[in-house]
Design a protein that fits this description.
single chain, Oxidized Rhodanese, domain 1, five-stranded parallel β-sheet
Length: 132
Amino acid sequence: MWASLVVVFGALIIVWGGTYLFQRWQMHHYATVIDEDQFARGIHKAQVVDVRQDNDFRKGHILGARNIPYAYLTQQYSELRKDMPVYLYDAGTTAVIQAARVLYKHGYRDLYILAGGYLEWHGKTKKDKYAD
């Protein structure tokens, strides 16, 4: 019995580790991950896109960001210019990796992801006064 639990636990660790490594590879393959300081320095020369859901965006977002939720990005990617850098963020890094993949597949190459996402952002933000 213990042997089967060890095998199952080991398999779960391997799957989790493989998923984590694959996501890290995707993130670095499709975009450049930058820290908060780099993001803040380049924010005025880039298109800043928040890929979180609209209600999260209204509760608070990086000043100057536009909201294109990941679920709508496949229809709205053409609203972004290919000749300007695109700075992406979400709450963490899950949806933003997929967003970077979508944009990369549509020819966007100057893509940057905020390390840690909005949850780690300490710069200027804006909040909708009617948000919850």
